[in-house]
Amino acid sequence: MLVSASVLYAQSTVTGYVYDDANGNGERDRREQGVAGVAVSNGIQVAATDADGRYQLPIGDDNIIFVVKPAGYTVPVDENNLPKFYYIHKPNGSPTLKYGGVEATGPLPKSVDFPLVKKQEPVEFTALIFGDPQPYTDEDMENFNRAVVGEVKGIQHIAFGLSLGDLVGDNLSMHRPYLKTTAQIGVPWYNLMGNHDMDYDAVADSLADETFEASVGPANYSFNYGNAHFIILDDILYPDPRDEKGYWGGFRKSQLDFVENDLKYVDKDKLVVLAFHIPLLHEEEGSFRNADRQRLFDLLREYPNVFSMSAHTHLQRQNFYGAEDGWHGDRPFHEYNAGTTSGDWYSGELNEQGVPVSTMRDGTPKGYAFLTINDNQYTVDYKVVGQPKDIQIKLFHPKVVAQGRGTQSGIFANFFMGYKDDKVEYRIDDGEWKPMNHIEAPDPEFVRLLYRWDTTEALMPGRRPSNAVVSTHLWRGNIPTNLPVGEHRIEVRATDLFGRTFIQQSSYRLADPL
Asked: For the domain 393-511, what is the CATH code?
């Protein structure tokens, strides 16, 4: 649909047209005009179309040519709602791999053309964000389908969706069932590659995405929507260049060259949104190569409005980078490390649907996010699967406490989207609001659920969750015992990074001491 191929021949450059597909048939008809000033890339170099919509780029024997969708246009989608904005050029196909990779594409077409269809794009829009669906089995895929996709199927007023890697769990033959599952949501769906989406039998990092490319599409690309520019990157180095074993977070030079060339066509007033799988956060380069992060920061320095998203950790946290981390923008660089739709890898007790609750190790319930962009500003909302959208805080506290007797127990608030500098307060009954203290500790509610598995005398359905880890969004307040005997209401009020306030209520009882 995307390629005019009347004449095929070998060449060292690729040329073609980006055109206004007025009738939407995916073919460049005689009267359809080219679109000028549209960026097209070979994965490293980027060129803009001329007045006739024509571009020209160097090409080798392993390139994906793609159009950088401009704002105000849409691109075709396939039967799985995957945007079709690219042409794979691998004349000899992929090397021999367990999951096949890309079949030989043959000689390069004379003209590689890309259709665009005009579509009004508001400057305010919302995208649906999934972290790590990661099904390892058909049962996992069905749980993903029932609990997550079933909840958002047919959702309205969503511009597009994006999964932040680990679409599947190592079995790359599950990519296609995954795509059929997300297709039900009914919106164009973008994807990026995670470490569980790779060809582990690849001998070089540049070849680790061959099967991903065949099934899903490019691992590195960009597009525009409204006043935002999205850059999607594979940030897994495999094999790890330090010891040729496992993987490491980072980028190849060619990927960062693409970012540099891509940004030449991005206005400074746009919001630049980056998405990759492994968080940029590291200590002494343990999980991410610092030189790559530094070059990325340097390339983005002149852009005042920048935001990034990652997944991978099966936790949820807000990461901010400043001068001490090598970021020298006017404001800290914000990375949202998103919670996952698989939660704690489909573990935990079964809910009323028979689906594992999969609460993550930091106490964040499994869920998904909404990224809302208005001009060049953004907000992020987290939605707990199966719960009303206003459930943003989970409380833990004793149910009953002895009246008048001191206690070391407390009121704990897990504010799922929280950051340590957020304002979190509590009050008892209609008393004075008091600040809660941010602490770094395991979520006691998650620990309580975990210990059910270790103290039960009969096997429970499902699979024991992972052990608890320190939560970065946990607050504590003292529990008053100097009030009258009886029931007392707890209210917790939290204000997020974007100035929005959420309230969660509960209660405890004071009883006469025995």
From this structure: 2.60.40.10
